[in-house]
Structures are given as C-alpha cells and as structure tokens.
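Repro:
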Amino acid sequence: MKASVVLAMLASMLLLSGCGKAPPPAVAADTPEPAYAQSIEAWRQEREDKLRDPDGWLSFTGSGQIAAGEHRVGSAQDNDIVLPSGAAHLGVLRLSPQGEIEFRSVAGSDARIDGEPFDSAALLDQKQEGGPTSVHTGQARFYVVRTGDVFGWRFRDPQAPALRAFDGVPHFPVDPSWRVQADWQAYPQPRELRLVTSNGTEESARVPGKAVFERDGRRYELLPIHEDGDDELFFVLADRTSGKETYGGARFLHAALPADGKVVLDFNKAINPPCALNGHVVCPLAPPENRLDLRVEAGEKTYPRAH
C-alpha cells in the first residue's frame, strides 16, 4: 500500500483608478505556470498509460470471497466459483482452516502455472513471498488474495471490457495553489493506524508522523502510511468533494519523504484508489483522522465507468 489539503482561492479584484479607462483583462490568479502545468499533464499521461496496461487495475473481471473447504472453479454455471471466462471446468480449490491453499486441475482443463500444466499445486496468496500464484486459463488468470483474515479470489483478463472501454479519468483543472508545503512532525516512535477496507476488513498501517498546514486561517493534519524501505509517504484521504465530485471512499496521494522538516503535498496528483476504478478490487478507505473539512478541488474526479 502506498494527503493533506488545501482549499479555495480568493478571487483577485481590479480597482478602477478613476481615469475613466477600462481596466486591462485580468489574469486569473490560478493560471498554471506553464512548466508546472506541463509536468502535471505529463504525469497524468503516464498514469493513464499504466491504467491501460493489460495487467493493470482495469483487467479484473471477477472476484469473490472463499470459505474454508473445497470449491469447483470454472466458467460453467455448475461451479462453486463461476469465472467470467476461461475453461468450463478449470479445477478444484481447497482452502484449509489454517489458510493453506491447494488447486487441483481436472481432466481436459487448460490450467497452467508458469506456462506448464499440472495436476496439483500449493498456491500462495498475495501477502506471501513470491505470491500470488496464478492459475492461467487461456490469456486470463485466477489467483487467491487475503485481506485481514478474509480470503478471496480474483480473475484478470487482458481482454477485459473495462480495459477496452477506458477513455481516461476526469480531473479538476491543474492548479498550482494545491501544491502545498506542509510542516512535518515526526513521532518519537511510529504509531499504528487501523484502516477499514472497501470489503469491511481491517488492516494495520504504520504512521511515522503527520503533515500539518494552514489554509485560510485553519489548521489541518494528515497521517501518512510508510513502510520500511519505501521511498515515499502514502496518504489515504477524503474531503468535502468526496461522494460528490470525487470517489466517496478515499483518494490516494503519494509524497516524497520529508526533508528539512517539510513535506510537499501536491493535490493535483490525488488519484482514485483502485476500487474506484474497478469493483473487483479491495482498497483502504480514508480513516477519520484524514477526512478533511474542506473542498480539495484538485486531482482526479470520480471515474464514470467504474463497475
């Protein structure tokens, strides 16, 4: 897993000098500096290129939870786990009460792991080293994930309808005033933050400090997540646009690590979480500490084609 906030701008006003001449055309105070605007547009293009990746977030076409026991897997309706495409009968998944996962292919199935057919194999979930183990059928793949104590399955297809339909993510206009230099207040020891995910499970996150800034005389704080080895801070936040112009659960913001007691929060780079783009993905929701009482009119808006 990898936000803070800034709000409204005061409109600038021109005072007539009394000379009777019409004032010259006003230059909007929020006109982006060309170089900065170009950098944000380039960043947005790079993000959209990643979303178009055949193995990106939009490639998910199926998902569900898995209880302990055996489950028949395939695209035929008589399976316990019905896939949206692929082999009619792919195999049998067994999840033990201890969380061990086994997959047995069935005769006539095209099930493959690492390009090779198999009879039976232990599968790793995405939290285990080297995982998740994918079972391929055609160009698509099936695998097991875990959030908290809940196991689930995911199915990804490079020919997913969501990928073919993707035509970009809407966003607010580039506004350099939303690039905020916040004060960084490190904690003596990292604190734990509990995050609720979009499927109702809980995850624990490590918070090393807080970003603090003021806007229009008000003070705001945001808590980032940081794991050892990461070269950036990760904010999960919501604001007064959430559930209206932007996704209600959260937006994500990445920021460089603090330097000289400061951290730069560029809300023009606030993005939709994966679960706002595709309903088959689980992601963290903004914790109460990061729900800001102001409108962050920057970054990505709600993706209209989410399903």
